[in-house]
Amino acid sequence: MSRPPLSPRTAIMLVFAAFGSLIGLWAGSIPLVTLQAGVSSYQLGLGLAASTLASVLSMSLGGVIGKHFSNRAVLLVLLPLDAVLTLGLMTAGSVFWFFLFIITQAAVMGLTDIFMNAEASAIEHDMQKPIFTAFHGGASLAMAIFAIVSSLVSAWAGTHVS
Length: 162
Known about the structure:
Elements: H1 8-37, H2 41-59, H3 62-68, H4 71-90, H5 95-127, H6 132-157
Helix pairs in contact: 1-4, 1-5, 1-6, 2-5, 4-5
């Protein structure tokens, strides 16, 4: 029997890092995204409020989805979708597309957050030692690194490159 390529701990650490990377990419490019989409400060505030609401509301679906699918199966679908929606948000060319992507991306990221934390909790339980903080640390580190890189790249070349 062959050994899986990654341990569950390593795999979920990569999920947390990917999640943080996507948030960092978006955070570092906010000024340029709003400029290219023609989004005013007021509209950005509305978009951020709506995205927070969408994220929280989507999290309430976690239990329903979790009854039918495993955490791992859901994450395999959500992570690529997160990446596509973040790319859409970062390249939004109008206020309409900005709102569509910021709300949809936040909803999907909210679901990802629920399922990655549920899987991390299961892994921590199986290992019988506290490792959860390392997962969140990995996400935070990726978020910071990608926010800086995205900020520099989007200012230099545009968000379509970030």
